[in-house]
Amino acid sequence: MWGTIRNKLSGPLTGAKFQNADLEPPGPPLHPRPDVEPKLLARFTGGVTGPNPYDVLGLERDCTPDQIQAAYRWLARQLHPDLNPGDPRAVERTQELNAAYAVLSSPTRRRDLDASLDRAARPADANLRTNSGQNPPLRQDVAVRPLDLIQGVALEVLIQDPSNPHGPERLKLIVPPGTAPGTRLRRLRPGVDGGIVEVRLKAQGDSRFQVRGSDLRCDLRISLTRAEQGGSERVTGPTGSTLFVTIPARVKRGQILRLPGEGLPRTQGGRGDLLVRVQYQPKVQIRRIPPGH
Q: Does residue 290 lie in a domain region?
């Protein structure tokens, strides 16, 4: 049995366009449609008898209202019919997305949905414990860029398990914007009775940033004049934005300057800090000493 995970970004969200894209599509601000059909809405409030709104938005049940809104806006842009003119199911998926958001954004509907899921999960949990020897959870760590945790990303999980008669499995995971490192995403495996795949997200450093928990660290090389006199220097943040850091006069080599709120998302909310390590090379001169001196 083996599993691989890769980024699944296509169309208008690939490459630099995705990195710099707003979470809202072109035009007026994006809001959920108020005219969700009652029959469709009823399907999404039926718990196990209908589609699971959490799965539609790619979220865990303990997600916050901000994460629900962020995931909805991100997916609404990705699935918008105007951006998928050749996809006949684009309109249908958008309607399902609106219905899922209408349920989870309403405290009353979400509470009723959670109660229904809890009632259905009790026998399912007992069955999973009974069959745990046959289908233990499949756990996988995946390294994602700091940008992916901050802005969100779609992942595709590929699993090849000879015991699954349905062949290779493909699961789509949505990492909502503002997801903290260490977050675990759990999904049921299609075609595997009681099978679960659990993905743990790990922040991956690169040539620019090193990961320190929820903080990021980068190096800033400055001139001797700037080190002596102080001033302001520009650094590039993890999202590509330009940030300004104040250099104190007579700064020391290796001194850490902190930019609050420019690091990785935190579990308790907000973001960590960007730690800027000052680097410069002192000027060293060597001259020959004449004899007798």
A: no
